[in-house]
Amino acid sequence: MALQDNRTSRFVLSAVLCGIALSLSLLDGAVSSLLPLPGFKLGLANVVSLFALCCLGLPWALLICVVRSLLTAMLSGNMTMLFFSLAGGVVSILVMYLALKYLSVIKTSVLGGISHNLMQLAAAAVVTATPQVSYYFPVLVLTGTVCGFFVGALCTLVFRRIRLPFPGNAIKTD
């Protein structure tokens, strides 16, 4: 049964997506703590952000990002990460919003992953007041590209499996 295109349905879907994103973000934090790269995350919650952007639109995707970032910071007890998460997440969603008009979901996700990492790098430079964090630039571009590809591929699989409740954008999955 397809959801009705109304505010209540969108709100319910966004709440469900926010819960999924929160769970994936907490799981991502646990998995990432086992990896040797400092500050590296797989970006699992970005699947939800990209899905929300395609299905619900920009305002709802931004709302989900902000709520997920706040709740993840509170539940993990790391309020410092809130600044980095919000900066990277909001910029990433804005970049993906613009890219979706011209590119496939996978290419859009790669741009989102790279822009997320670069914005977090800029935030780290501001917070630490040390320009030496720019040495981490090549690593973040590489990880943003690889993780963005896999997030986009996963999101493409989701789109192929389910019927989109609010098809607003022409979603390119090639």
Characterize the structure shown.
- With 174 residues, the protein is mainly alpha-helical.
- It contains six helices and no strands.
- It has helices spanning 7-32, 46-55, 58-76, 80-99, 105-128, 137-161.
- The longest helix is centred in the first third of the chain and has 26 residues, at 7-32.
- It is globular.
Assess the beta-strand content as a share of residues: under 5%
**Can you tell me the residue ranges where pLDDT is under 50 for at least 5 consecutive residues?**
166-170
Tell me the total number of β-strands. 0
User: What is the averaged pLDDT score?
Assistant: 84
Key attributes of the depicted protein:
mainly alpha; single chain; globular; 6 helices; 174 residues; 71% helix
Topology:
Blueprint lengths: L6 H26 L13 H10 L2 H19 L3 H20 L5 H24 L8 H25 L13
Helix pairs in contact: 1-2, 1-3, 2-3, 2-4, 2-6, 3-4, 4-5, 5-6
Quick structural summary:
This protein has 174 residues and is mostly helical. The protein has 6 helices and no strands.
